[in-house]
Q: What sequence folds into this?
């Protein structure tokens, strides 16, 4: 690539010089833009020790069908939003044990559609420090975009058993100044082994739960492993089973006693 790069740049510069000499503005602009493209390729080809960014946010529902199809093929785990695709690409850009500091939305940590993406993150990065800011974090983001700031490194091996990350939960603080004043307040700090997230169905990054609760998930089977889960009180067919009181024939209503206190319920005969 370096050989081709040098040759392309030389030809572009020659092209640019001729455009300037002939006062051809269109060719001059073309050459300058193409040179920028070469430098952009350099950016994408390199690996980095540190990446700091605040990626753009754009849900896939706002993309054209063509773009959505392209993104889904390139980033099947993270295509649902631009910022999650950025996270995945950043990991690819990092050198081994490289570091990233990033500000993003929080929804990738919890919602179902990012379950596989969370599993990928748990296998790929160490979360060194995460500050869960919530809403009212930044003036630019307003009061409707819950945000997080976190630092992670690219993992070197599969052994995460002994690694502990530092998490701060500032979601319940309403004022921006409160959040700033308590960014590293130990009162809001949890020390968490990110491996514990694997034991919770869907791998949600629920860093605020207590160690006792995490141990319950870690050391015990899930309910679905020991008993079949069934739906509770539901009709399963509202059109068939639900009626307004005036729709029911009076002769079909009876009052049945159900305990010694003579309480009862109305029900169909």
A:
């Amino acid at each position: 690539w370096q050989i081709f790069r040098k040759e392309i740049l030389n030809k572009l510069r020659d092209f640019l010089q001729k455009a300037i000499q002939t006062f051809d503005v269109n060719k001059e602009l073309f050459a300058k833009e193409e040179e920028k493209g070469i430098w952009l390729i350099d950016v994408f080809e390199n690996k980095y020790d540190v990446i700091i960014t605040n990626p753009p946010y754009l849900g896939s529902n706002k993309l054209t069908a063509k773009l959505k199809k392209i993104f889904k093929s390139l980033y099947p785990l993270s295509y649902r939003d631009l910022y999650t695709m950025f996270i995945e690409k950043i990991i690819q850009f990092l050198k081994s044990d490289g570091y990233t500091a990033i500000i993003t939305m929080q929804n990738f940590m919890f919602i179902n559609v990012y379950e596989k993406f969370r599993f990928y993150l748990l296998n790929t990065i160490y979360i060194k420090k995460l500050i869960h800011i919530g809403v009212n974090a930044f003036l630019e983001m307003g009061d409707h975009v819950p945000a997080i700031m976190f630092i992670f490194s690219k993992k070197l091996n599969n052994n995460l058993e002994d690694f502990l990350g530092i998490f701060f939960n500032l979601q319940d603080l309403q004022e921006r100044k409160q959040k700033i004043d308590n960014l590293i307040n130990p009162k809001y700090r949890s020390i968490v082994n990110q491996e514990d997230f694997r034991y919770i169905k869907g791998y949600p990054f629920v860093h605020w739960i207590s160690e006792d609760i995490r141990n319950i998930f870690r050391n015990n089977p899930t309910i679905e492993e020991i008993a079949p889960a069934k739906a509770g009180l539901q009709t399963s067919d509202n059109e068939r089973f639900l009626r307004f009181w005036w729709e029911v024939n009076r002769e079909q209503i009876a009052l049945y006693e159900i305990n010694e206190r003579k309480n009862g319920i109305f029900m169909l005969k």
User: Anything to note?
Assistant: Residues 134 and 146 are 4 Å apart (CA to CA).
